[in-house]
Amino acid sequence: MRRTPRQVLYDVLAWLGLSVLAAAAGPDPFAEPGVFAVVTGGRVLLLGLAVLVGRAWPLAASVILLPLGPWDFGEGLATTTWDFTGGVATTDQLWPLSLVSVKIFPLSATTLAVLWYAYRTGRSASRAWPATAVFGAAAVIGAGVVLAQGGLLRYWVTMVSGLIGCYVVPYLLGTLRRLLLQQRERTQLSVAAQARLRERTRIAHDMHDSLGHDLALIAVRAAGLEIAPGLAPAQAKAAGELRVAASEATERLREIVGLLRDDFDPAPLVPVAADVTDLVERSRDSGMDVSLEVAEGPVPALAYRAVQEGLTNAAKHAPGAWVRVSVSPARISVRNGPARGRATAIPGGMGLTGLRERVRLAGGTMTAGPVDDGFELVVLPLQGEEDPLRA
């Protein structure tokens, strides 16, 4: 991994700082210059190698720093004295004299680097066995050091606490941090995926509601031309081909919408400038016999989609029939009479389902079905509620 200039600067500063701490904690350079040069020089060299490889391979840095582990039994972060007899050996000694004074977690200046790279190992490791092998090697080294010191029990306590504090705990903290970051990333990816699904659903419903309505009007006009009296055979044939093409385009649109939509998360959007009057005027221009009655009061947010779906159904299944649209704050109704011409073979099935779900989410109710003289779609919106799917 190529380092940036800033990373190189940080690594050099870290190495210099650790080297100063190692020199300060080493032998007296004036009393024992030879020992100081060997001990401090070895520590500085190991620290330099660890810093050199530690950014890319923190576990390798931990291996390099094994000689600088918590093996100094004369130092400790905390000293606990267990002395139940005042330091006097008696025949009823309740605690071993070997544990009268114990160094716990021998922390020195050089073990700061051990702590850091053990933590980095946990942050970056995807498998546990390499770190387990290194920590096992550290335990073997520690056991050898304890045995070389005489195998006293207090040395074992010091060594074990040092291994746990310098290797195991930082590694586990790094692993916990890595898992938390991975969980956060998975959550962000899930949120992004849900946003994409909602956008796909919005596109699907907008395509169905807008393009489907326009294609239905095209098919209605073509069907009217096809059966118009006095039309030349070639023109009637062309009108029939146009009607069939509109039907096929509607079918392809339905297939595309089926791929895009998410039945469990309907999120269509109402057009910003949705105007029921303009919608009715466009239907009249296409040849439909549509009347509109709008009562005083606020127009429900669901009115546009409800009227659009009702007009689309009438155009598809009852060509030539009269259509009565009634909009009030408490009720939206689209009613059509019996068909006076041949119904166009335009597939459908999603519009009423999507509208019913939209009304349900808004807290209202919807009915759609045959009546005495035709078909009626009725929506009863919840008073005072906005369309929950409005952008």
Automatic annotation (TrEMBL):
**Gene Ontology MF term list:** ATP binding; phosphorelay sensor kinase activity; protein dimerization activity
Q: Which residues form the Signal transduction histidine kinase subgroup 3 dimerisation and phosphoacceptor domain?
A: 199-262
The record, for Pfam families, names: HisKA_3
List the transmembrane segments.
Answer: 94-119, 131-149, 155-176
- Residue runs in coiled coils: none
Stored InterPro entries: HATPase_C_sf, Sensor_HK_TwoCompSys, Sig_transdc_His_kin_sub3_dim/P
Q: Which reaction does it catalyse?
A: ATP + protein L-histidine = ADP + protein N-phospho-L-histidine
Put simply, this protein is called histidine kinase
